[in-house]
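In the laboratory, one determines a bound structure by crystallizing the protein with its ligand and collecting diffraction data. In a computational setting the workflow is compressed into a single prediction: the sequence and the ligand go in, and a structural description comes out. We illustrate the idea with nicotinamide-adenine-dinucleotide.
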Amino acid sequence: MPDAPTITVSYPVADVAALTLDMPGKGANVLSQSVLQELDSHLQQLEGRSDIRGLIIRSGKPGQFIAGADLREFVASLDVTQSQAAEMCQRGRRLFARLSQTQFPTVAAIDGICVGGGAELVSWCDRRVMSDSPKTQFGFPEVKLGLFPGWGGTARAPRIAGLGNAVEMITGGESISAQQALAMGWASDVVPPDRLMESALAIIREEQATRAYDRDRQRCQGPVAISPTELGFLGATAAGYIQQQTGGHYPAPLAALETILAGSQLDCEAACRLEADGMARLFGSPVNAALLNIFFLTDLNKKDRGVDRSELQPREIRTVSILGAGIMGAGIAAANLKREVQVLLTDARSEAIRQGVQGVLDEVAYDRETKQKDFDRAVRAAALLNTTTDDAALAASDLVIEAVVENEQVKREVLQRLEQRMKPGQLLATNTSTIPVNSLAQGLEHPQRFCGIHFFNPVRRMKLVEVIRGQASDDQTIITAVHYAKRLGKMPVVVKDGPGFLVNRLLLPYMDEALKLVEQGLSFEDVDKAARRFGMPMGPIELYDMVGLDTALFAGKVLCQAFPDRFTASPIVPALVAAGRLGQKSGRGFFLHVGKKRPQTDPEVMALLKPFRSEKPVQLKPDQIIHRLFLPMLVEASRVLEEGLVRHPRDVDIGMVFGTGFPPFRGGLLHWADSLGAAKVVEFLKPLEPLGKRVHPTALLQELAAKGRKFYDGSPS
Ligand code: NAD
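The predicted complex, in structure-token form:
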């Protein structure tokens, strides 16, 4: 049986047709090949009818217009040739362009998300009316996937909204609201959702009377009117800004800029051909494949419930008690309040509670758009935030999170004391970053309802949360912790208990290798530069100073003790700590930190480290430094998979991208390895062999290399 259709035709009035998109069984409409075919045949029928005097395109899904092209189809066709990709673009664009060639005006009535291919489709309509619902978002996010619009978007946008707006929207990839769309000229009208059709019909009647749409069709076929000076200025400023934002790692925004500017000086048909050729060059490129991987990782993470039992339902967390009002406790409290989860905060020191509450309210009140504190927000949050020193009150919350000092004895005492008072069904969690959850579970009466919920610092910025599954944690606990983390807008990854869990375990080999390179005589700057060149937001040496050298020393010790066969602690960090150089927090670490200035080199530190550094620096090219830094991390990741620490390779990549800033344009650590090929990785590891086990290929890597297989085995799912 053929699939039920997505597009149906109806006649809101006798001489106006409406095409309604409503993909059966899906939450959102996407433009798959079959939907495009349906559109084609509907247009063919309507084009031949003399009784039709107007066409409206709308969605049958409230709050969801069109979410874009079907990305799964994209992935399946990533290896087409460039000319095939260009032809795919041309075919879609020619279809959409028919919306601007009909004998009657065409109007898109948009309620909800209208992005990517959806925004392109409506760009070919004569007019657009949008609903004032906050769900209505309009934009071209293609650059976030390493692409730019390929169905005429780069040609239509400047002709409708002006060159500056088109450049900003397409190269930035951010969506705009209906009101912004109205101001830019995208929308002719913004009305409540239930008045969309009425407005669309009124627009059609007006266009029939004035025939303004005909004049606009003529105008849009030609080049965009702009003086050469203005064009040059726009190009130079936009290119400078893009270069600064992308660090040269993301080619799509710059390519989009060139295409928009060059296309603006041609007629529309030629601009579209230019667009198709440019888009084809990006389609299937390594950056495109990597960013698609990130898109699917994120999408699958939203659907992953953390356990495989479909009959199990998470418990709803409405109230949370947080013990420890320090950096992490305050950050976690703010994250809860932002999502309207009631918080009870406590600390052993009353001064810490006072400071914690102040910090939490300051953060919650901050409005990112206005860059000001919003008094109303603070008042609303304050109503949900309470403090207490009463154990009975703390233990009454749906979830109790312990975020006290990193001391096993203290944590055990706190957890056991509170557990006594908790009722069945309540959850107990620790935010420890180094202490095994299994050790903390010892002495608990109900370890099945205990797990780690490991937030990262700073909580407001870091999307990743590791949900640590102890030996005794049950499925109900894990599914609830995962559900809760998502409620806070985080990306939870379930990790089995083990030293360093996932992220710190994989960071150690990288951070440690950076010190080994310094010991071999490389400068801090050479090491950091190589990491940044690879795409990391900062180098490992800078990262040491940011994390704090005392924290790094402690975490390093735990991991070196756990894996003595491959990691030995460098003497460098202890020497710096002994000299009181703790990093940013003490104003001195590897670098000097003065106010908000960039970290500065400090000759004193060189003298301090002299005994540990080789007199004759090893000579390494930037790529060799990159291999030294990232291959030990990769080898350890393959070990993590062998041990079954996470449930899927994608969890490693989510952890690295959202927990460490691993460059998204590389698609994640394992995607990067897959893009090189396991055989190549093994070949790169060969010359490093004398360094020891940390760079010896694991059985898994060897097997993938021998069989020509990938970590992902071809699919992120
Ligand atoms: P912090 O020193 O800023 O805060 C710890 C707080 O716990 C202090 O205010 C202290 O007074 C309080 N405290 C100590 N003993 C207590 C007790 N018995 N009862 C109640 N409160 C008590 O530390 P932090 O950086 O917020 O770290 C807290 C936890 O989060 C640690 O387990 C740490 O490993 C973990 N963590 C820290 C980071 C980070 O980067 N700071 C990141 C992830 C996880």
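The first strand starts at residue 7 and ends at 13. Keep in mind that any predicted model is a hypothesis to be tested, not a measurement.
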